[in-house]
Amino acid sequence: MRMLIVSGVVAVMTSLTSTAATPAPAVDSAAIDAVVDEYRRAIGLPGTAVVITHGNTEVHAAGYGRTPTGEHVTEHTPMAVASVSKSFTALAVMQLVETGRVNLDQSVQVYLPEFAMADPRATEITVRQLLDQTSGMSDTTFPAFSRPQPSSLVEAVAGMRGARLAADPGTQWEYHNPNFQVAARMVEVTSGQPFDEYLQEHVFGPLGMTDSRTVDTARDLPPSAHGHLRILGVAVPLPEPPAFGNGSGGVLSSAHDMAAWLIAQNNQGRGPDGTSIASAATVAAMHTPSTVSDSYALGWSIGTTASGAPLIAHSGDLFTSTAYQALLPASGYGLAVMANTGLAYADAAAIAERLIALLENTPTPPTGPPLAMVDSVLLLLVLAAVLLGGFGVHRSGRWAAAGTGRLRAAPRLLPLVVPLVLFATIHRAVGLLYRGRDVTWIQVTYLYPTFMLLLATATLACIAVLVARLIALAR
Q1: How far apart, in whole angstroms, are the C-alpha atoms of residue 361 and residue 363?
Q2: Which of these, 325, 347, 350, lies nearest to 259 by C-alpha position?
Q3: Which pTM does this prediction carry?
Q4: Can you name the residues that pair with 231 across neighbouring β-strands?
Q5: How far apart are CA 37 and CA 286, in angstroms?
Q6: E strand or H helix that includes residue 54
Q7: Helix, strand or coil for residue 147?
Q8: What kind and span of H or E run contains 156?
Q9: Which among 110, 150, 117 has a CA at the least distance from the CA of 136?
Q10: Which residues contact 1 (CB under 8 A, 6 or more apart)?
Q11: Nearest-CA neighbor of 281 among 1, 2, 9?
Q12: What three-state secondary structure class fits 326?
């Protein structure tokens, strides 16, 4: 049944490729520049790179603004593509499937004996289930970020030995970065090459992607590939928080290189010069949703555009940069955007949404309320917390004198401890808001910097008042 579906998709893609060969709607570089420049001015985006392809042709590739280190962003500036990396890992695995060295529906442990978990069900996890994220692994049972971070794919897989599954393999879809870390390590063991070396030889090299590579951890990112937080509309350069990402989010690429990647996806596995990195059937299989989730395939998300047209895409989110890639099968377009601001702002996806509207000649989505206004309100509350804390310390003597004894004072002091408890556990509360995803405390600070400043100020103010009142009671 799965092969019939893939064959059908191949036939549809062949038909769409023929359609894409017809003259494209008139979208020129000036119109694309205007969309990007207007967004950058409205939002205060420091730097971005954009590429649009049509069929086997690059329509536009350019950089805008500056990197955190002050260089101009160009079409050859390597930028982090974050979870867009998953589609590269999926292709690497599928190449091994093509050559017969890997079977998608075989147990992962057949190819990667070192992969073991405390849960006996892990022996049932197939290669396909890693790539379509139905393995049963989950942030709720194996924290991706809050555990000690590995420094290599070997360590990443070894760290899973004490973990359990959240569901039976193949029964539930859940986004989980370690799925693709296991897949990347499987590529290393099966091919006998380090993962970056494999991608250079079998993907980046054949496509002429000379600006691209993959790294293990956030500390391996070059300074120019870090990003920014925006506070009061001002972009503040910051390094990416510590994390491991090879296989799941470690690829660096440029607008120039992403053009070749998009062309291969829209051209049945053939790059700009006709070099094949995968068969048409393989590409179609990667774009076919799983039987468990109709919105996720093998390293790609499946959906529709605002106009209802088919959309094959994947976003990528780091805490100081974002990325987005999309294929529009009905028109033959492909596009990719990299932005050097973090996931709190979703700038890459927002620019991509506007470019898709341009390509489809539909209304441009409205720009949301400026976050600078939210920052202003939160900073005013910071000032209020300081003033209230000072007032509480000043009046602590009167508070103690007006009380009815030390024992009865304890319940009146307990509310002052609440901000401290929230400050220490805020990452768990945010994780619940993100549907159980694992989030560290420092990552929350990157997500909501002014809110965390308010929470820290309120915590210190309450502690100061608490200490002052205890001293007053003792006297």
Answers
A1: 7
A2: 325
A3: 0.90
A4: 234
A5: 34
A6: strand 47-54
A7: coil
A8: helix 153-158
A9: 117
A10: none
A11: 9
A12: strand
Which two tokens mark 256? 């120039």
Task: Compute the distance between CA of residue 264 and CA of residue 273 in angstroms, rounded to an integer.
Answer: 10
Amino acid present at 179 = N
Q: Which two tokens stand for residue 465?
A: 């008042």
Return the structure tokens found at 51.
Answer: 């590429």
Contact 119, 163 (CB under 8 A): yes
CA 306 – CA 353 distance, rounded (Å): 9
Question: Which residue is it, tokens 């954009």?
Answer: 50
Q: Mind listing the pLDDT tens digit of every residue in the chain (475 residues)?
A: 343 333 343 333 444 443 334 345 568 899 999 999 999 999 999 999 999 999 999 999 999 999 999 999 999 999 999 999 999 999 999 999 999 999 999 999 999 999 999 999 999 999 999 999 999 999 999 999 999 999 999 999 999 999 999 999 999 999 999 999 999 999 999 999 999 999 999 999 999 999 999 999 999 999 989 999 998 889 999 999 999 999 999 999 999 999 999 999 999 999 999 999 999 999 999 999 999 999 999 999 999 999 999 999 999 999 999 999 999 999 999 999 999 999 999 999 999 999 999 999 998 887 766 677 888 999 999 999 999 999 999 998 888 887 656 666 778 888 999 999 999 999 998 988 887 889 999 999 999 999 999 999 999 999 999 999 999 888 7
